Amino acid sequence: MAATHAQRSTREIFTTLEYGPVPESHACALAWLDTQDRHLGHYVNGKWLKPEHRNSVPCRDPITGENLASCPQAQAEDVAAAVEAARTAWENWSGLPGASRAQYLTRLAKMIQKHQRLLWTLESLVTGRAVREVRDRDIPLAQQLLQWHAVQAYTQEETLAGWEPMGVIGLILSPTFSFLEMMWRICPALAVGCTVVVLVPPGSPTPLLLAQLAGELGSFPGILNVINGPASLGPILASQPGVQKVTFCGAVEEGRVLRRTLAGQGAELGLALGAESLLVLTEAADVDSAVEGVVDAAWSDRSAGGLRLLIQESVWDETMRRLQERMARLRGGRGLDGAVDMGARGAAAHDLAQRYVREAQSQGAQVFQAGDVPSVSPFFPPTLVSDLPPASPCTQAEVPWPVVVASPFRTAKEALAVANGTPRGGSASVWSERLGQALELGYGLRVGTVWINAHGLRHPEVPTGGCKESGSSWHGGPDGLYEYLRPSGTPARLPSLSENLNYDTFGLAVPLTLPSGPEIGPSPAAPYGLFIGGRFQAPGARSSRCIQDSKGNLQAYVAEGGAKDIRGAVEAAHQAAPGWVSQPPGARASLLWALASALERRESAFTSALERHGVELKTAKVEVELSARRLRAWGARAQAQGHLLQVAELRGPVLRLREPLGVLAIVCPDEWPLLAFASLLAAALAHGNAVVLVPSGVCPIPALEVCQDMATLLPAGLVNVVTGDRDHLTRCLALHQDVQALWYFGSAQGSQFVEWASAGNLKPVWVNRGRPRAWDQEAQGAGPELGLRAARTKALWLPMGD
Amino acid sequence: MGGRIPTRGSRRGQRARGQRARGQRAGGGGQRARGAEGPGAEVAGPAPRGTGAGRARRSRGGGTQEGLGGGELGVEEPATAAVARAMSARNLGTELDLSWISKIQVNQPAVLRRAEQIQARRMVKKEWQAAWLLKAVTFIDLTTLSGDDTSSNVQRLCYKAKYPIREDLLKALNVHDKGLTTAAVCVYPARVCDAVKALKAAGSTIPVASVATGFPAGQTHLKTRLEEIRLAVEDGATEIDVVINRTLVLTGQWEGSDFIKTSTGKETVNATFPVAIVMLRAIRDFFWKTGNKIGFKPAGGIRSAKDSLAWLSLIKEELGDEWLTPELFRIGASTLLSDIERQIYHHVTGRYAAYHDLPMS
After folding, report:
1. pLDDT one-digit tens code per residue, A71-119
2. How many helices and strands (H and E) does chain A possess?
3. Which chain B positions have a beta carbon within 8 Å of A12's beta carbon?
4. Of A238, A321, A264, nearest to A749 (Cα)?
5. pLDDT digit string (tens) for B243-252?
6. Mean pLDDT score, A665-688
7. Which end of chain B is more exposed for a tag (fewer CB within 10 A), N or C?
8. Of B117, B127, B132, the CB nearest to A8
9. What confidence category does residue B89 fall into, taking pLDDT thresholds of 50, 70 and 90?
10. Contact B321 A285 (CB under 8 A)
11. Which residues on neighbouring strands pair with residue A400, listed in sequence order?
12. Residues of A with CB below 8 A from B281's CB?
C-alpha cells in the first residue's frame, strides 16, 4: 500500500524496485494555522472577524482525522457584516479606472507566487487531494487567472463599453469544490469592478488564506470577503440588500433547491452544477493516449467528479485490457505524498463512491478495482464499472469520484444519442484520429466544453460552463466577464418577492370564456387560431377569448390555448430545430430579411391594428418601421458568430462556438406588442433557436398578423405562437421539461413563478420582474444582452500535432 | 538474432507511419518475409530489396513519432545468425502483418502530455532513490564512441564497468555482495579486442557490445556491414548494435527485431520521452500479441542521475517490473555513471563529492 510502506533498506528496494513515499512537509501550513491560534474566523473587510458564541466546526485532516483548527460557523449577522463591507468597498472599487484594478490583480498574483508553498500544502492538507496536482496545476492556473483578468480589467473601458459591474456578488461553494473554483469566479468579478462575498463550507481554510493575502495588499479592504458557514446560509446571503448575483457551484440537487428558494429574490442566480464528465473513445483513437485521458479525467485528482466512458464496440476488449493494466499502476495515498496519483476526499466522498459501486453491483454491473491504494477509508481505489444495464438507476445517476462507468456504442451517431441522452451537459472529450469524425462528435455533443484528443485542459481565456442540468453559468473568457456585468443604465435588481404566491395554483386554471356582451358593428372575422407547426390551428380547448380595442369594443377573437397546445407547439419546434440549426447564418439572415420586407409591405395593416389599441399613428408607424429594422439587424448579426481563441501552452486553436439554446419559449410583454415580439423573435431566430411565443396579452393581433407572413416564409414549426391566458401558458412552458430556455416579460409574480419552476430542468430563464423595458431604445430593445442570452457558448479544444 | 537498432533523431517530415505501411502493401507486396517459423530460418519469399542473402527476422515494427525529433523503431536489418546477441529469450518472430502497423494511432499532443506527466509523477527519494540509482547502474551500457579511443581509455572504461561504484559506498548501503557491474561495455568494432582483453584481465564476464554496421549512419554496403559484424564477433563482441538501413524503412519495408534503440546518440536530438513512450507501447502490444518480449535501449543525452530515474519509472509504468532487467532494458550512456556515483556518495555521506573523490572512467 502506497501510504503504508514500512521502513525499507536500500538492499531490499534494490531487489523489489518499489516506489517509496515522497512526503511534502506541511510545516508551513501548520505554522499559518498557528498564527490564527488554530481558530479560524471569517475574513471580512480586510480583517479577521472572529465573533463570539458561534458553533464551531473542526477543520480536520481528511486522512488522519487530526483536528487542525476550529472554524466558527457564520450566522446571519456575520453574513450581513460581510455584505455591508462588500457594498461599501464596491462604491470605490467599481468607480476605479480599469488600470487600477488591473494593477491590484497583478499584485495579488505576485502575492500568490510568493506564498505558493503555503497555499499548496494547506490546500492538499485539508482537502486530501494530491499535492502534485495542486502544486503543478492549480497554483500556476490561479496566477494565470489573475494575470489574464488583469489584462481584461485594463482594457475594460474599451472592450466592454456599454456594460457596468453588477454590484456585490455572492459566491457559494460546496465542500467538493477546490479553491480554484473560487478563483475562476472571483477573478472576473473583481476585474470588472464587482466585490465579492464568498460563503465556504466550514473547514476550508484556503479561501480564507487567499482573502487574507488579498486583504494584506492593503489598498482595498472589503472587495473580497470570505465567511465560513453551511450552505443553508445561501438564501440569507442572496437576500441581503445589495447582493446582485449569487453564483453557486455544487451538486445538482442543491442547485435545484437554491433555485426554488431564490425565486423572486433580488439576486440573479448562476449555477454550475455537477462534476461528472464524459469521454467518447472511437475505434479511430490512439487508445493508449485515450486511456491516459481517462486517468486525467477520473484518477488524477483533477476533477471533483466521476467519468462516463463510451467505447466503440470494435475496440471494447482492447480498451478494457489497457485500462485495467493502467489502473493497476495507479497509486493512491496521502495527498501530501508527492508521488501519488490520487489522494482522498474525505469520508463523505468515500461513502458516496462506495454506495454507488454497491448499487451498481446489485443492478448487475461488473466492477473492477485496482491500483496501489490503502484499503481503509477515506481512500477509495480507482474503479471501473461496466455492463451496467442501460435502464438501471445507476446509469441515470451522476457518477461519483473516482468511478468510471464504461458502456459500448456502435456508431458515432449512436454515441451522440447516448451522450446527449443524459441530463448532464458539463464537459466531454472525443478521442479519434479522424478529423471529420472528431469534429462531427465535437459539434454534436450538447455540453459546454469539448476536448478533442485531450481531457481536462483549462485556460483563463477559454470559457467553461455547461448546459442542461449542469447549469448555465460561465467562468473564464469573455463569457465569464459578462456573468458579472449588466448593460449600463440597468436599474439594480431589487427583490420582488411575493410571499403569498402559491406555486401549486399559479396559472393552473384557465379562465372560462363566456360571451362578453353584444357584438357591435360589423361582425369580426373568424377567430384567430394558434400558429403551430406552420399553420393556424384550432385550440384544443375549442374556445376563444375576445380582444377588445382601446375603446372597449370587441376587436377580434383569439384562440384560448392550453397545455395540450403548448405540448404541440414545443413538439413542432423540436422537429423544426435541427433543420434550422444546420442552416448557414446567411440563409437565416435572408429569411429574416424577407420577413422584414413582408412587414414593410403590410405596414398600413399593422399600423391600423396598433392604432385600434390606442397607439398614436406616428408611434405606430415608428413601431412597425423599427420592428422591420430589428429583423434586419439581427439577420445581419447572425453572420458573425463565435470566434477563435489562441491559447498559450496549446498548439492549435480553441473554438468559441455560439450554439442555439434549442427550443426557446418567449412570453412577450404587453407593451410594444409588435416591436417587442419582433425584437425577441429576431434575436432568437438569428441565433438558430426554434421558438414558442406567447404574444402580448392585450394586443396579440399584430403578432398573429406576422404569423400570416411567417406561414409562407419560414420552415413549418420554427416559430409557434400560442395565444391565451398568459399565466396559464407561462405555467405550461415553465414546467415543460423539454423547453430549453424561457424568457418572460410580464408580471412580478409570473417572473417569480418562472424562476421557481425552472428548477425542474434548470433551464436558463430571463425575467423582467414586472418591469417594462424600453423596447424602442437600442440598448434595451436590441442590445448585445439579447444576443448573449439567445445562444450558449461551447468551447471546442483542438490540439494539433503529428 | 541480436541486432539492436540504433536509429537517429533526424527524421522529420516523413509521411505518417500508417501511410507508409499501406504504401508498401500496394506497391511492393512481394517483399514481406514469409514462412519462417524459427530462428535462423531462411526468407521464403523474395528478399527485401538491398539485403541480398541473409536471414530475416520478420514481424511488425511498432510506432514511431515524427516531428518529435525521435527515432524510428521496430525495424531490423537482416543479419547473420552468427552475430546473435546473447539473450535469454529471443524474438522468435511472427508472420508479418502490416495491418498491425496501419492500425496504430499515435496522437502526438497526447503523447507529449504523457511524457511531461510521467517525469513529474513518480519521484523517488532517500533509500528508494539510492536503490533505484544502483539498479540503474546495472542497466548501463558503459559506452565510449570517440574517434580518439585508444586501448588505455578503453581499459579504464572496462575497469569502471567492473567497479562502477566505490566499494566503501556499496558497503555503507549493504549491497557490496551483489556483484554490481554495468550491463555491458560498448565500443567501436576496432576497440573490441582491447575491451575483451581488459575485461578478461579484470576477471570479469561483462559482455562487450559493439556498434558495427557503418555506425552511426548505416549508409554502407550490406556486404561490408555484414563483414564488420563478423569481424567484431571474431574479436569477442557478444552484442552488436545494428544501425538499420533507414532507406528500407522509409520505403515501407519493415522487418523485426528483438531489441530496439531510440537513437545512435550521435545526433542533436537523441532519446526523448515522447518517442520512448510510443516505442514502449509498441513493445507491449507486440508482447501481448505474440508473447515475445522485445528489449529497449534509450541512448544519447541521458547524463544525470535524475534522468536515469525518470527512465526507470517510465519503463516501470509503461511495461512493468518484468522489463526492469538488463536482458530487456539498457541505457546507453558514458557520463551518467559518474553522476550516479556522485549522488550515491551524497546519499551515504551527506556531503557533495569533490571531483577527485570519485575515480574517473
Report:
1. 999 999 999 999 999 999 999 999 999 999 999 999 999 999 999 999 9
2. 29, 30
3. 131
4. A264
5. 888 788 788 7
6. 96
7. C
8. B127
9. low
10. no
11. A305
12. 288
The count of C-alpha atoms lying within 13 angstroms of the C-alpha of B284, restricted to the half-sphere facing its C-beta, is: 23
Distance CA A179, CA A185 (A): 10
**E strands along chain B, which residues?**
4-5, 140-143, 184-187, 208-210, 239-240, 259-261, 295-297, 331-333
Q: Search chain B and give the residue with CA nearest A329.
A: B317
For A433-461, the pLDDT digits (tens) are: 999 999 999 999 999 999 999 999 999 99
Active-site annotation holder among B160, B162, B261, B293: B261
Is the CB of residue B281 less than 8 Å away from at least one CB of chain A? Answer: yes
Averaged over B323-345, what is the pLDDT?
95
**Minimum mean pLDDT range among A363-367, A497-501, B174-178, B345-349:** A497-501
- Which chain B residues contact residue A799 at CB under 8 A? 109-110
Q: Is B297 a catalytic residue?
A: yes
**Residue B261 falls in the annotated catalytic set:** yes
For A43-66, what is the mean pLDDT? Answer: 92
Q: Is the peptide bond before A518 cis (omega within 30 degrees of 0)?
A: no
What values do phi and psi take at B197, rounded to 5?
A: -65, -45
Q: Which of A14, A286, A321 sits opposite B135 (nearest CB)?
A: A14
Residue of chain B whose alpha carbon sits nearest to that of A288: B281
When CB atoms are compared, the residue of B16, B114, B312 closest to A289 is B114
B131·A287 Cβ contact <8 A? no
Please give the pLDDT value at position B244.
Answer: 82
Higher pLDDT: B150 or B83? It is: B150
Q: Is the dihedral of CA A775, A779, A780, A784 positive or negative?
A: positive
Interface test with B, best of A5, A9, A17, A300 (most B CBs within 10 A): A17
Measured between beta carbons, which residues in chain B are less than 8 angstroms from residue A341?
A: 121
- What pLDDT is recorded for position A177? 82
* pLDDT tops 90 at residue A510: no
B210 phi and psi angles, rounded to 5 deg:
-135, 145
Catalytic status, residue B162: no
- A10/B316 CB distance under 8 A: no
Angle at A69 between CA A64 and CA A73, to 5 degrees: 120
Q: Which band of pLDDT confidence, cut at 50, 70 and 90, is reported for residue B24?
A: very low
Q: Categorize the per-residue pLDDT at A202 as very low, low, confident or very high, splitting at 50, 70 and 90.
A: confident
> CB B105 to CB A284 under 8 A?
yes
- Which pLDDT score, from 0 to 100, does residue A578 have? 95
- In the predicted model, is pLDDT for residue B30 greater than 60? no
Residues of B in contact with A292 (CB under 8 A): 110, 113-114, 117
Percent of chain B with pLDDT over 90: 55
Find the CB nearest A289 among B107, B120, B132. Answer: B107
Q: Which among A13, A329, A652 has the least Cβ separation from residue B131?
A: A13
As a whole number, mean pLDDT of residues B310-337 equals 95
pLDDT at position B176: 93
* SS3 call for B222: helix
* Residue pairs between chains A and B whose CB atoms are closer than 8 Å: 103
Is A339's CB within 8 Å of B123's CB? yes
Distances (CA, A) of A453 to A406, A419, A632, A671: 18, 17, 40, 51
From the list B64, B62, B82, the residue with the least C-alpha distance to B9 is: B64
Residue A368 pLDDT > 90: yes
Asked if A285 lies within 8 A of B105 by C-beta distance, the reply is yes
From residue B223, alpha-carbon distances to B46, B78, B214, B228, B244 in Å are 18, 12, 11, 9, 14
Q: What is the pTM of this model?
A: 0.90
Are B128 and A18 inside 8 Å of each other by CB? yes
Question: Which SS3 state, helix, strand or coil, does residue A717 take?
Answer: coil
What is the Cα–Cα distance from A545 to B6, expressed in whole angstroms? 88
